Amino acid sequence: MSTLAAMPPKSAPQHGDALKAYCQISAILSVLIVALILSTLILQSGPVLSLKNSGMFSTHWNPDAGQYGMMPMVFGSVFVMIIAAIVAFPIGLMTAIYISETRSSKLRRFIKSVLELLTGIPSIVYGLIGVAYLNIWVAEAFDLQSGRIILTAGILLGIMILPTFLTLTEDAISTVPARFRENAKALGLYRHEIFKLTILPQAKSGIAGAGLLAIGRALGETMAVMLVIGSLDRLPSPLFNPLSSGQTITSKLGREVGESAFGSAHFSALVFMSLILVSITIVLTIISQYFLSRKNTYV
Amino acid sequence: MFKVVNKRHFTEKCFAFSTRFSLLICASVLLFLLGSIAIQGIGAISLEFLFTPAREFGKSGGIFYQLFGSLLIVLVAALLVLPIAFGTALFRNAYNNNLAIAKIMDQSLYALNAIPSVTYGIFGLIFFVNFLGTGISWFVGSIILAIMMLPTVTLSTHQAMLAIPKIYHENAAALGLPKKEIIRRVTLPQSFHGIVTGLLISLARAIGETAPIMFIATAFSGVKVPGSLVEPVSTLPTHILELAQQSTDPQALQNAWGASLTLVTLAAIFSGFALFLRRRLTPEGHS
Known about the structure:
By secondary structure, chain A is mainly alpha-helical.
């Protein structure tokens, strides 16, 4: 707490109180908003949860027949997230190592600011790039009729989370004091050994935080995924076939929320999926905050 | 390929190679992303494109009302978020002594940051559009974007307030200034840069958001300047969405690129301004 908080208000109680009241109201509002959002979602999930034969755990989504199987969407979200992590994590980690090892602080600052620029590209623009290029390249590479498949969505998402993961990982590696590096070097260790033996043990909590935050972003990403995933409400067959079209929770929400009638079981099923998604991303973020704050880095 | 001296040496070479190779991949992805947006976009953009309304469902004509709608929605959102974020940060720094409350406030802000954008859209649709009965309204879009901007602006203001050297407060208190005077003469001017940069950074993010506003605030065509708070507008992101879905039509695709470059440029202007002001406004003695 700052010193200001410790001081008792001295005079002008009327104005001081008005200012204090304004601050309290703002603070209460900003805490209540989260509660309001979550309780709204929970309340609206009611109708589908009270349905007897909603079949939420099945694989059939057909609102007209009262079937609300959410498994294809949940599976799609997880699958796409895994592909994104496979694309982004190794490249991000190795690049972060390179950047933090380089001696030129100018180059480092330049790369950092370019990465900031990249995180500023809106997801709908990534979607457009996916539709205009990636889509077609993937279709050609695998000789498919359409490139709107799980793999395309995964790669695109991997590209999207790469800057976030890269900067946070680089922060984690850079905060390891230089003397550890120097001592290890003086012992005659090679760079990969220095990284494995001295840097990684100290940076791993920061890197884990970066990874969790990145996959949290990946799970919640809507527009880009929605445009390239093909929107097919079925489990791929065979199950882990990245070349089939799919659906994630977010792409489902983006496509169908506008079409479903408010208050219907269909709408409620969508809200419930959104609630599942929010719960996962909030938990991921809180865990990642824990990891990141342990290394005194911040988002 | 490599001169193999021993196993350690070989591993070292592989390690060095893979870090360089990764950097190369990152750089080419970056060049490709920025290059494709710039090259495709410049081909589509002209003064006429920016200042004429869309025709034929966006396939021809420009993006004037989309540009207007996007700016309207985010600027009003910034006005809405400003007092609440400032009040929350001030409460946290000047009035709250309770560690538990501080923790709860931090966690709520992190949670707000973690909520996926599409969920904000659904919340807005349930709470405002249906429960409060506003219907599709640009102002509801502004409120939702303001909620999304809240964590960034609050945390940035909070950090700036934390960075004010303690001695400033102590000196002001020693002069016998009452608390509200200290806030007015020390806290506010000394943390001003945090508010402004936080606002600009969150503006840069908010202007590109599609999912939160697509159910609640926008209509695709036939929209002009709204006459009241409860009318829809068109925005750049939702416009790009519609055009991207007709991606087989080259004309639609070209306009989508033009709108994308406009959007990315606007976001870059906001964040560039934030970087510039962060340097200019940060008072001496701050980290």
